[in-house]
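User: Sequence recovery, please. Input:
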C-alpha cells in the first residue's frame, strides 16, 4: 500500500508551509512516529512525523519549496517493491494523490503527525541529527564551519549562532557573514587568535531595486493585518503613575521578576473583574474565554514579531510567571515554541516603552477583543493633591478595542481599575 504525506496544519492560522529540510531521503526506511521532515509554519520550525512505516518512495515537494496545507508532498510505500510504483504515480500525477487505478493506492488521505516539541535542526547523519537554529545553520554555511564539530550552548544542547561565531573566530577563514542573533545562553569558549575578526561582520545591505519575497512568517503577519481591517476598533488612552510599581520592580528584580511580568500580572488581575475585555466576537455572538491568557509581543532578531502567551496569568503566582516568561522568550528566539504557546492569547500587551516610545497605537490581533499599548515610564511634572507641584513617573497606555462588543465605558472602567491597581496596590500582585 502507498500512503501520502500531506503538508500539515501546524497552527490555526497556517495556510501553507515551507519545507526546511527532508530528514529522510528517497528509499530510506521510515518507522511509525519517526521524523520525516522539518516544516516552517507561521512562527516556528517543527518536526513532522510519519503515521506509517515503510519506505520514503518519492519526494514531491523538495526542501525549500512551499505547499498549501493538505497538499501531498511525498509518498510512503509499505514495501520496497512498491517504491517504483509510487515513483510512477508521482511522475504521472505531479503532486496529486496516487491514482485510483493502482491497487496499491490508498482510498483516503491521512495527515502526518506533528511532534510535541518544535525544533530547527540540520541533519548531520540520518541516524544522528544535530539540533541547531536556522540562523546558526545559515551562518555555519557562510563561514564554512562544520556543525558536527560544535557543542551547542543553547537550550537542550541546541547549537545557536554564538556557537558558530565563536568557532569561526578560531577555525574559519574570514567571510561575509549573515546577521548574527544574540545568543540566549552562551558557554565559555577559547579566546580567538590574533588574526580573527574582532567585531561581528556587518549586515549585508539590501541593493537598490532588490526584491525580497515574504517569508512564511511574514505572510502570516500580512494575513493577520488584513483581517484586522474588517474589525471596527477604537482607542482609549490613560495616564498611569508608576512610582509604586517601579519601586516594587526594583525589589523583585533580584528574584527574576521584570516590569513586563508585573504589568502582565496586573492586566490579568484586572481582566478577572472585566471579562468582556477578555472575550471575542464570533459569527453568532460573544465568546467569553475560560482562561485569561496574556500574550506579550516580542521582537524577533530577524525583524519578525511573536506573541508568547502566559497562560492563566490571573491564577499563576508572580514568580512562576517570571520563570515561564524567561523560558518562553528564550525559546521564541530560537523558534522552539509550540503553536499553543503563541496562538492561545486572549488579551495582548505591546510594550514599546523599553525603546523610549511615549505613546503609540496597537493593531488588534485577530480573534481577540483588545490589545494594550504601553509607553515609557518617565519623570513628569504634576500637580499634587495639596496644590503643589511634584515629579512623578508616569506612563501612557492606549487600549485598542473591538467596538462590536466592547464599548467606551467598558474600556474606561478597565483602565481605571488597572491604574488603581498599579498606582495604589501593586504589592497585591505578589500574593
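Assistant: Recovered sequence (431 residues):
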Amino acid at each position: 500500500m502507498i500512503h501520502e504525506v500531506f503538508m500539515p496544519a501546524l497552527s490555526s492560522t497556517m495556510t501553507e508551509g515551507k519545507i526546511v529540510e527532508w530528514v529522510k531521503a528517497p528509499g530510506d526506511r521510515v518507522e511509525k512516529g519517526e521524523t520525516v521532515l522539518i516544516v516552517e509554519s507561521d512562527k516556528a520550525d517543527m518536526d513532522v512525523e510519519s503515521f506509517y512505516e515503510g519506505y520514503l518512495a518519492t519526494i514531491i515537494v523538495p526542501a525549500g519549496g512551499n505547499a498549501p496545507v493538505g497538499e501531498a508532498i511525498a509518498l510512503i510505500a509499505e514495501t520496497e517493491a512498491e517504491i517504483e510504483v509510487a515513483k510512477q504515480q508521482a511522475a504521472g500525477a505531479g503532486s496529486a494523490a496516487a491514482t485510483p487505478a493502482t491497487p496499491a493506492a490508498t482510498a483516503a488521505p491521512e495527515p502526518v503527525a506533528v511532534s510535541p516539541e518544535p525544533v530547527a535542526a540540520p541533519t548531520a547523519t540520518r541516524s544522528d541529527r544535530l539540533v541547531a537554529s536556522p540562523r546558526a545553520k545559515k551562518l555555519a554555511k557562510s563561514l564554512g564551519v562544520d556543525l558536527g564539530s560544535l557543542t551547542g550552548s543553547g537550550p537542550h544542547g541546541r547549537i545557536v549562532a554564538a556557537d558558530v561565531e565563536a568557532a569561526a573566530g578560531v577555525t574559519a577563514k574570514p567571510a561575509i557573514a549573515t546577521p548574527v542573533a544574540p545568543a540566549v545562553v552562551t558557554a565559555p569558549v577559547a579566546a580567538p587568535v590574533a588574526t580573527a575578526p574582532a567585531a561581528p561582520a556587518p549586515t549585508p545591505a539590501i541593493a537598490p531595486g532588490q526584491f525580497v519575497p515574504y517569508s512564511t512568517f511574514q505572510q502570516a503577519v500580512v494575513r493577520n493585518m488584513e483581517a484586522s481591517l474588517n474589525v471596527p476598533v477604537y482607542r482609549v488612552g490613560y495616564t498611569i503613575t508608576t512610582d509604586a510599581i517601579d519601586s516594587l520592580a526594583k525589589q523583585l528584580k533580584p528574584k527574576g521578576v521584570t516590569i513586563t511580568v508585573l504589568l502582565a500580572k496586573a492586566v490579568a488581575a484586572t481582566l478577572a473583574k472585566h471579562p468582556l475585555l477578555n472575550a471575542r466576537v464570533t459569527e453568532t455572538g460573544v465568546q467569553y474565554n475560560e482562561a485569561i491568557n496574556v500574550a506579550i509581543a516580542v521582537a524577533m532578531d530577524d525583524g519578525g514579531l511573536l506573541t508568547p502567551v502566559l497562560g492563566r496569568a490571573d491564577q499563576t503566582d508572580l514568580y512562576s510567571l517570571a520563570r515561564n516568561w524567561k523560558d518562553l522568550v528564550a525559546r521564541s528566539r530560537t523558534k522552539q515554541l509550540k503553536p499553543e504557546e503563541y496562538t492561545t492569547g486572549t488579551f495582548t500587551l505591546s510594550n514599546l516603552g523599553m525603546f523610549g516610545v511615549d505613546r503609540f497605537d496597537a493593531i488588534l490581533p485577530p480573534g481577540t477583543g483588545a490589545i494594550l499599548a504601553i509607553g515609557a515610564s518617565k519623570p513628569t511634572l504634576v500637580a499634587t493633591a495639596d496644590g503643589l507641584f511634584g515629579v512623578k513617573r508616569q506612563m501612557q497606555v492606549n487600549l485598542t478595542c473591538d467596538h462590536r462588543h466592547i464599548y467606551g465605558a467598558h474600556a474606561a472602567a478597565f483602565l481605571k481599575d488597572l491604574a488603581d491597581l498599579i498606582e495604589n496596590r501593586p504589592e497585591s500582585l505578589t500574593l
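The two ends are 60 Å apart (CA to CA).
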